[in-house]
Amino acid sequence: GAEVVFSVDCSKLKEHFLLGKRDFDRIYFNFPHCGRKAGVVKNRQLLARFFHSCAEVLAQEGQVHVALCNGQGGTPADQPRREWHNSWQIVAVAAGAGFILSDVHPFKAETIHGYQCTGYRSQDKSFCVEGALNHIFTRSTAPPCFTPLSCKTQLGSQEVSFQVPQVLVDKINRGFLEVNSSHPVRTIKEKLSAGLSQAFPLQDISSCLPLLHQGHPDGVCPSNIFWITLSPGEAPGTEKMPQGLADGDLCSHFGQDSDKNAQEGCPIPKQFYLRPSLLPHAQAIITKGAVSPGTLQVLSGPVFRKCRITPHSMPVFHEMLLVLAVSRGTESSWIQVLVDNINTTMNSLHQGVSGVKPSISLQEATSFGAELNDFAAFERQLGEIQHSLCVGTDPEPSGCCVGVIRTAPDELKSRELVVVSASLNLDLLAMLLCGISDWRMLWTWDRRFLRQFPEGELRLFKSFSLYPPSYVHDVSFWVPDGEEFDEVAFHSLARRVSGETVVSIELRDNFQQPGTGRRSLCYRVTFQSCDRALGCREAAEMQLRFREEIQQQLGVTLR
């Protein structure tokens, strides 16, 4: 009952089928080849034309199956694997047409009834299919469109709007922690809260925490802050502090001068920034005396920090902050109770997901130093840390820092009580528990991610984009004389220009010219997307824009 069409040009599929007979669920191309002794370049071009043609006739949820002989594809699935330049580079070629490799498995000709391979060098001869692989491609989500976005938030008693930094446009107000969300960060937060409620009375005070702080961050490097300009006419300007602000929602040890100005009714400087931590909100609660001894206060929400590009460095993540007031002298034992409870909950979660039991260790602040990840390093800027929480599994029991524990500063302590706080990075916990290797996957718009996490359930994540291609570009430039190069700003520009497709930046050379003393830096920039198709042409265009931006924004002279 099938319709068979002959002499179909694989690069012009839509010309062979009427409009109503397109939208194929499957398109199979077994062992494509240009014929005779065609080289790898010609066969790549054939695949490129084929994939572009498929994009015009494939259903939205459809698949493209391409079988290749062993080694031709150029992916790690090929054994042995050819050198990249000598392969057909099928994943990179498909990416140029908007496809990602979602699965790959052995091609077993013997399981297909009546199948015979033929056409060796355009002759009626069979060819070797031992070790051949079937590559299954699916449509990628479209490249993100970063149109300017305005966001509203509460600033004291006033609702204000501000322009969202471009790098955060696709991450602001995603609602991962909302009641109807099935995102793993919410599941982990709810499971932790349920576990902690077994040991402590719990009070969740996360609602309506403002996104903006006002003042000057004290002790925090300005390069790590997302500075914000309010929309015209909305900044408090030189007005006195509204009562809502004076009550402490937005001012903290981040800006001691702002606190003092507020108390004295002095004019407020026009400095606003996205909250890098929930700690100021906790300290505001302590200042008001709203902490009930023995009751665990829970605050949660996204926080924003400019940082370098590494696999575990996030410009935005979800923080869970636990605040507990205890009798002076008993804080050590209560900290241990808190850690033991988190440990028990994490163990049950991790074993339920992977069957592997993690170890959560409590480290003294003096025992970690250079090995701190960016999360812990930034937490140190916020104030003294007594302990760090590290999650590890064999063979790396030392683990990754996912939380810090501190006691309130002296000015917030009383004679009878000490306030203990624990800050947890929920995104890092989700990555470790669910086997997610790239933080960017937590923020993907591809529905295939959340489909793997039914509400209230954690599972090991299976990537729907296998062996994504990477593209390496170098950039070198002269640094302005007498100026310290701001590497965080350099990485932040790369994030913005590439739409978070820069996966690593490596300093390759630091050269000082004899005689003049001029300094030149050379960086290797690697582009790679974890969840969508990224072609070589798109990566090259991003690199050109990046060169223009660093010249304009950082004042460097390109070489």
TrEMBL record:
InterPro entries: aa-tRNA-synth_II/BPL/LPL (IPR045864), BMT5-like (IPR019446), Fdx_antiC-bd (IPR005121), Fdx_antiC-bd_sf (IPR036690), SAM-dependent_MTases_sf (IPR029063). Residues 466-559 form the FDX-ACB domain. It holds the Pfam family FDX-ACB. The keyword Oxidoreductase does not apply. Its EC number is 6.1.1.20. SMART domains: FDX-ACB. One of its GO terms (biological process) is translation. It catalyses: tRNA(Phe) + L-phenylalanine + ATP = L-phenylalanyl-tRNA(Phe) + AMP + diphosphate + H(+). One of its GO terms (cellular component) is mitochondrial matrix. It is an enzyme of class 6 (ligase). Belongs to the class-II aminoacyl-tRNA synthetase family. PANTHER family: FERREDOXIN-FOLD ANTICODON-BINDING DOMAIN-CONTAINING PROTEIN 1, PHENYLALANYL-TRNA SYNTHETASE. This is phenylalanine--tRNA ligase. It comes from Chloropsis cyanopogon. The gene is Fdxacb1.
